[in-house]
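Q: Here's a chain of 92 amino acids. Please give me its 3D structure as tokens.
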Amino acid sequence: MDRINQKVILAIRTIKGSIPGYESFGSDFSSIKFKDENFTTKIRNTISLALKDLIDLEEISLESVEVSDDRATQIQIVYKNLTTLQTQTINI
């Protein structure tokens, strides 16, 4: 697996604040307590913030974040790896 793709997965799967000395790294889905009218926006913002460093370094571009409206929420993240120019999808 490409190192950029590994960084994306790590940023999404790491709980924000769980790495001593690098508390801003990761995602904070735990701050989203319940589904309301802003649920999808909160998810998209959480993903964007988790990937901000990679976006700012121009290693990736975030193409889309889709959130299902089912009881068991599914999130699909589509991004372009700017080093390989390949589009990747992560489902969480």
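Q: Can you summarize the key feature?
A: Strands lie at 60-67, 75-81, 86-91.
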